[in-house]
């Protein structure tokens, strides 16, 4: 009853810096791994890996290079792998590319080839535009051991490392092959060009659609093999192809970028290679796996609300955060829908309250993301439950004795399927600066004056598939225990991927928030 009385007379309060005492009688100091998925069930780590060979006069197959399944019918490989072969003699094997183990034998599928399409600008004398598409004579049967990879289609490459796989071709015919996986990092082109220029295959050096990669460990990778990055959905890990092995039999060397040639590939394959469409199409055969290193608070207080309009069709999926039992902090742009109308109510779990008053920051200008904050006064106090409580503003007193780092950002991702999205909190990986947004024209257009003093930048590099997660518009940047609000989400092109999250700092807004919360509701 003590907390109930405190809430019902809160409009008589004269300060807000004692919020932990009033709102958070139960401490939140336990954390657990946020288990998004389960353990890997796949019989092979590279279910898209294909081996390309040529059948000899005696019917035996000489396996010569590798490729990647990118649809049920097409394998992407190097043009130098198949440009000199007789299409009728080509053979492609998927599923069981590692003869050294038996666990993947059940996935084995072998196909003839109906057509080979070499990149129109490929010249057999050089190693440029070294791409080819191999059309199988029938569709593969999808399974956890045979599954197409998706293609990284962006011109921006924010990766620090890549994965490659290789097969010992000399042993493959003797059923002793062993597939290996190695991590590579990209290197400056100048470091690998000196040796390559001597070969004559790259007389003009590496071009914009090629890159060099190197491994600390020596290894072999086959011509046409994939260089990739694993990206996550809420429940799975999906391989995304970045390049094709174009030169040398070692893992070190030159790779042909795929992204600049996506248009040509889509024309040949006859289907879209959109990243989210690909993940949705093949999710049933991707590995279940969890995102790395994230933790979540155990039994945290719940403070996030949804904003609603009279016409549900106009809802723009905005959220906000309770800073008092009758006050919500959100983004100012969340207080308009596409018709310029303001929300009329909020919901928190199964509780609803009408909106009595909206006050946007006095320096906010519609269409701008600077000073993009607003306060909403509800027409009643939200029903009190032990798991619903407002957050604290970042007073010095509020910070003492609380887990404040890493800050936790609010993101919306699809838990299952790709329509209904779940709001989750994930720890930020790092802080960033204006320099981290310079490469992105959209960020520069949104923040032409830079970040300034009221905006902060946070890394959200959880390797989610770009475009899958989205910013929780109007949502909070919280302390690790989710009891203190440091910021309000302002902008991110997506959430949980490689683009930074920009938030509006709350600390500098405390006087404005106090003035609104502590004055009596307007009549």
TrEMBL record:
Entry keywords, A to Z: Disulfide bond, Glycoprotein, Hydrolase, Immunity, Innate immunity, Protease, Secreted, Signal
SUPFAM superfamilies xrefs: Trypsin-like serine proteases
Species this protein is from: Culex pipiens
A Pfam family assignment: Trypsin
Domain called Peptidase S1: residue spans: 35-270, 268-518
Location of this chain's protein in the cell: Secreted
GO cellular component: extracellular region
Upper taxonomic lineage: Eukaryota, Metazoa, Ecdysozoa, Arthropoda, Hexapoda
Family annotation (InterPro entries): CLIP_Serine_Protease, Peptidase_S1_PA, Peptidase_S1_PA_chymotrypsin, Peptidase_S1A, Trypsin_dom
Database matches in PROSITE patterns: TRYPSIN_DOM
UniProt family annotation: Belongs to the peptidase S1 family. CLIP subfamily.
GO molecular function terms attached to this record: serine-type endopeptidase activity
Chief location of this protein within or outside the cell: secreted
GO biological process terms on file: innate immune response; proteolysis
Protein name: Serine protease snake
């Amino acid at each position: 009853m003590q907390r109930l009385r405190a809430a019902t007379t809160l409009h008589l309060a004269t300060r807000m810096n004692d919020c932990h005492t009033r709102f958070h009688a139960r401490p939140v100091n336990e954390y657990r791994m946020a288990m998004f998925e389960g353990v890997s069930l796949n019989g092979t780590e590279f279910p898209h890996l294909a081996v390309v060979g040529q059948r000899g006069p005696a019917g035996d197959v000489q396996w010569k290079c590798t490729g990647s399944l990118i649809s049920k019918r097409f394998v992407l490989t190097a043009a130098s792998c198949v440009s000199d072969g007789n299409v009728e003699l080509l053979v492609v094997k998927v599923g069981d590319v590692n003869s050294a183990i038996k666990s993947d034998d059940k996935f084995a599928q072998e196909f003839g080839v109906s057509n080979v399409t070499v990149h129109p600008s490929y010249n057999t004398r050089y190693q440029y535009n070294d791409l080819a598409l191999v059309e199988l004579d029938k569709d593969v049967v999808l399974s956890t051991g045979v599954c197409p990879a998706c293609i990284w289609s962006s011109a921006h490459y924010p990766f620090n490392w890549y994965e490659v796989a290789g097969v010992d071709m000399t042993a493959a015919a003797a059923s002793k092959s062993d597939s290996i996986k190695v991590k590579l990092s990209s290197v400056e082109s100048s470091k690998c060009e000196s040796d390559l220029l001597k070969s004559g295959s790259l007389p003009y050096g590496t071009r914009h659609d090629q890159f060099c990669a190197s491994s600390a460990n020596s290894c072999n990778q086959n011509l046409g093999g994939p260089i990739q990055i694993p990206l996550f959905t809420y429940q799975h890990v999906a391989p995304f192809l970045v390049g094709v092995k174009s030169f040398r039999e070692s893992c070190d060397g030159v790779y042909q970028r795929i992204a600049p040639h996506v248009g040509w590939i889509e024309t040949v394959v006859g289907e879209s290679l959109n990243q989210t469409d690909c993940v949705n199409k093949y999710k049933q055969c991707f590995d279940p796996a969890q995102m790395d290193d994230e933790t979540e608070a155990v039994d945290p207080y719940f403070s996030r609300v949804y904003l609603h309009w009279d016409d549900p069709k106009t809802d723009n999926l905005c959220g906000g955060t309770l800073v008092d039992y009758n006050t919500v902090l959100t983004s100012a742009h969340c207080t308009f829908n596409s018709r310029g109308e303001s929300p009329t109510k909020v919901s928190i779990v199964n509780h609803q309250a009408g909106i009595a008053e909206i006050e946007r920051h006095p320096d906010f200008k519609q269409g701008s993301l600077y000073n993009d904050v607003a306060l909403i006064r509800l027409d009643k106090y939200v029903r009190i439950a032990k798991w619903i409580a407002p957050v604290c503003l970042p007073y010095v007193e509020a910070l003492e004795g609380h887990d404040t780092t890493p800050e936790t950002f609010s993101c919306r991702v699809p838990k299952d399927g790709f329509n209904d999205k779940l709001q989750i909190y994930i720890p930020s990986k790092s802080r960033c600066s204006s320099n981290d947004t310079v490469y992105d024209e959209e960020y520069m257009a949104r923040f032409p004056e830079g970040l300034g003093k009221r905006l902060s930048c946070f890394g959200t590099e959880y390797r989610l598939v770009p475009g899958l997660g989205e910013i929780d518009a109007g949502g909070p940047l919280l302390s690790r225990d989710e009891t203190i609000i440091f910021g309000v989400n302002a902008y991110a092109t997506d959430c949980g991927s490689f683009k930074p999250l920009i938030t509006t700092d709350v600390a500098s807004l405390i006087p404005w928030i106090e003035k609104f919360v502590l004055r009596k509701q307007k009549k």
